[in-house]
Amino acid sequence: MFAEVIVDVAAKQTDKTFEYKIPSELKNVAVGSRVVVPFGRRKVQGFVVDIHAEANYQGELKELSLVLDDQIPLIPELVKLSEVLARKLFTYRISILQAMLPSMLKAGYKKNIVPLTDSARALPIFNGKVIDAATVRSNADILLINKLLATKAAKIDYVVKNKASHKKDVIYSISNSKKDYLEILANLRTNAFKQKILLNDIIENYESYPKRQQELANLGIKSDVLRNAVNNNWLQKQEVDVYRDPTAADMIHASKVVQLNAEQQAALDQINQQIVRKNAKTFLLEGITGSGKTEVYLHAIAECLKNNKSALMLVPEIALTPQMVNQVKSRFGKDVAVLHSALSEGEKYDEWCRIRNQETHVVVGARSAIFAPLTNIGLIIIDEEHEASYKQDNTPRYHARDVAILRSEYNHCPLVLGSATPSLYSRARAQKGVYQLLRLNNRANNKELPKVQIIDLKKAMFAGTQFDISVDMLNVIKKTIAKKEQVILLLNRRGFSNFMLCRECGYVLQCPNCDISLNYHKDINQMKCHYCGYEINKPYVCPKCHSKHIIFLGSGTQKIQEELINMIPNVRILRMDIDTTRKKGSYQKILSAFGQGQADILLGTQMIAKGLDFPNVTLVCVVNADIGLAVSNYNASEKTFDLLTQVAGRAGRADKEGLVLIQTYNPDHYAIKLASVQDYEQFYQSEMRYRYIGNYPPFYFTTLVSIVSHNEPLAAKQAFLVKRLLTKKLSQATIVLGPTPSAIGKINNQYFYQILVKYKKEPYLAETLSYIQNYAQDIAKNDINVYIDQEPENIM
Ligand code: ADP
Ligand code: ZN
Ligand code: ZN
C-alpha cells in the first residue's frame, strides 16, 4: 500500500503531496494519521491524506518511518476539509491540518524526533520499540533514555517526546472473596489498627471496589498500608488514564426545561425539520437580547440527540462561556465536551480525546472548536455569529462561519447562526434568501426592553474636572446601589489612561517598537504597549523637554475604578479586563462573585458586554460610547451598534425594570440612536446604504494583501510590485487600492503595507493570489512576508 503525505516543511512545494510506501510492520496507517517520513536528508512530520494500492510514482519510493499516534487524530472529513479550506484561504494545507489538532499533539515534535544509529542494538530495554510519551512513565525512564541517547547505545529508532498524555490515577482492586477478607481480618494482630480500617472498608463496601488512591486516603488509609496490602495480595494496584474535567470545580446549576413561546416554537420547528430531513440549510436566527435564543438552541440540540446525531455549538469568547456551558451541561450532562482557550492544554487534550473517541455527542467551544473531530453531526450552532473573534487573525486566517458552512454541507445538517445584531454580511445573505431568516421579536419572559437614556457629554455636568462619570450617571448609580441592585459599567479601554501628553512641547510618549502611544497602568506604575508588551516606568517629567507639565489622558477601566471609589463611599467593585483575567479561572471567579452579590458594580471592557445574565442587574452604564466610533474602520458603526445593543441587553433581565445610560459626544449618531432603541432592522437599512455608496462589504468581497518587513523601504517597494501584479492580472471591474501603510504602520518593529482588493466576480482571483503566494515564498528569505487575508475585519 502507498500513502500520500502532506509534509511539514517550510518550502514552497508543501501543498504537493509526497508518496511513500507503507511498510508492512507499520500498523494502523490510515487517512488522517500523523507520521514521520524521510524528506531529503531529514525526518519530518506529515499527515496521510490518501492511501492507494498502486504507486503513482514510477521510481523508487521511500517508506514511512513511523506512525505518531495510537488513535488516528484526524477524521476523514477534516482531511478533506483541509484541502478545500487551503484553496479558499490561499494558505498551505499543512497550516490548516496543524490548526485542527489540540496543541498537545503538535508540541515540539521536530527537535524531539531523534533517530539513533544502528550500533549496539543489544541492550535489553526498549528493544526495537519506539519510545513515546505513553511508554515513558517515570523520571527514571527519562533518565535512562537520556543516558542511552548520550552513549548512542540505544536500540530505539526514534524518541518522540510528544507531550500528549492523560492524567494518571492509581486505583486498587480486589481479587478475593468477601469470605477471604473476613478470614484475613480475623487472623490480624490486635494492634494492626490501620489494616483493620482497610479490611473493614473492603468488607463493608465490597461492591464499590476498585477504589481510587485518593478515596482510600480520605479514609485515613496511607500508602504504607496500601503497599503492605498489595504485598499480601489483598489488593491489586493499577494505573489508569483519567480525563481532566475542566468543569469539575464549577457549580452546575440545574436548569429546568422551559415551555417555548409561539415565536420560539416556530423557529424551532423550522430547524428541527431540517435536522430530521438532513438538509444543509443555513438559518439566521435574529432575536433581540433576551428573546430566548439559547432555549431554542438547547431544544434543537435535544432533537438532534434524539435523532442519534451529534451537535456542535460555538460561542464567541471565554467570558461568556461559563454561563452558556453551565446551561448546556445542566441539560446534557456528561454528553458535553467543552473546548476553549481558558482550559489548560491537558484539559483541552482530554476533552478533544473524549470527542475523538465518540464518548460525547455535544461540543461547546470557541472558534477553533469548529475543527472538533466530531462525527455524525446533525446540527451546528454559532451563537453571536457577528462576533469578530470568530475570525482568526493569524495564519490560517479562517472564519468559523465559513468552516461551519463546509461542515454542514459535508454532514448534510442545518447550521444556525444566532444573534441580536447579525453581521451585515449574514443579514444581507438572509435578505437574498441564501440563508433562511428566523426572527424572535419579543423578550421571552415578556419583559419590557430596558429604558435607554443618552447623556450628551457636551452638556453634561461633572463633579470635578478630571472625572469621566457625569453627575447624572453618578446619581443613578448611587440610587441603584442603595436599592441593593447591581450595576454593569462598560468602558472599552483597559489600563489607567491611554497616553501621556506633555503640555509644554506636545510630546506623546510612544512605543519604540510600534506606532502607538504607551498606556499608563497605575496598578504596576508602568507605561505599557498593548501591541508588543513593551514596558517602562512611568515618567515624572517629559522625556523630551523635561517639563513637569505632563498629563495622562484617555481614561481606562483602572481610572474609572479609582473615580468610583472616591465618589461612592464603601462601593464594592469588580473589574474585568485582560489585566484582571490573565490567570486561569479568574473569569469564573469574578462572574460568580458578582452573581452572588459580592459587589455592587461590575466594571469592564467589552468582555462584560455579551451574554451575561444577572437578574439583579438593573442598571447598565456606558462611560464613553465614542471609543469605537473613533477608529477609521469601515465597520466602526456596526461594531458600536453591536456593543451598545449587547450591553444594554444586560439590564433588567428578571422581574425588576432595567435602565441603560449611554454617555457620548455624538448623541445624534445613527449607530448610537438606533442602539438606544434596539432597532436592528433600521440600523441594517441605514448601514447598507452607507456601505453601498462606499463600495464596501457586503456589496463587495474583499481581500487584503499585507506586505511586512523590518525594513520599511523594502516593504514599500515590494508592495508596489505586488500592486502592479494585481492590476495586471485582475479584471477591469475589480478595485485595487493601495499600497498604504496600515493604520498602525509599525508593530513590533515590523512595517505593514496593505493592498485592498474589492471585487464582485473575479475569475482570475484564485490564479493571481496563488501566483502572489508563490512569489511571496521566493522573497521570504529577504525579510519580507506577504499575508493574504480573505474578508478581513479591519480595513478602512
Ligand atoms: P437570548 O440568548 O436571546 O438573549 P436567553 O436565551 O438568555 O435570551 O433568554 C432570556 C431569558 O428568558 C432567560 O432567563 C431564559 O431562561 C428566559 N426564557 C427563555 N425562554 C423562555 C420561555 N419560553 N419562557 C419563559 N422564560 C424564558
Ligand atoms: Zn515636553
Ligand atoms: Zn509596542
Automatic annotation (TrEMBL):
Listed cofactors: Zn(2+)
EC number: 5.6.2.4
Helicase C-terminal domain boundaries: 535-691
GO cellular component: primosome complex
Keywords: ATP-binding, DNA replication, DNA-binding, Helicase, Hydrolase, Isomerase, Metal-binding, Nucleotide-binding, Primosome, Zinc
Binding-site residues, Zn(2+) 1: 502, 505, 542, 545
Domain of life assignment: Bacteria
Cited Gene3D superfamilies: P-loop containing nucleotide triphosphate hydrolases, PriA, 3(prime) DNA-binding domain
Any GO BP: DNA replication, synthesis of primer
Cofactor annotation remark: Binds 2 zinc ions per subunit.
Positions of the Helicase ATP-binding domain: 274-440
UniProt GO molecular function: 3'-5' DNA helicase activity; ATP binding; ATP hydrolysis activity; DNA binding; zinc ion binding
Catalytic activity: ATP + H2O = ADP + phosphate + H(+); Couples ATP hydrolysis with the unwinding of duplex DNA by translocating in the 3'-5' direction
Residues bound to Zn(2+) 2: 511, 514, 529, 532
Pfam families the UniProt entry points to: Helicase_C, PriA_3primeBD, PriA_C, ResIII, Zn_ribbon_PriA
Enzyme class at the top of the EC tree: isomerase
Function description: Initiates the restart of stalled replication forks, which reloads the replicative helicase on sites other than the origin of replication. Recognizes and binds to abandoned replication forks and remodels them to uncover a helicase loading site. Promotes assembly of the primosome at these replication forks.
Record-stated family: Belongs to the helicase family. PriA subfamily.
Subunit structure: Component of the replication restart primosome.
Protein's recorded name: Replication restart protein PriA
Organism: Lactobacillus iners DSM 13335
Record lineage: Bacteria, Bacillati, Bacillota, Bacilli, Lactobacillales
Gene: priA
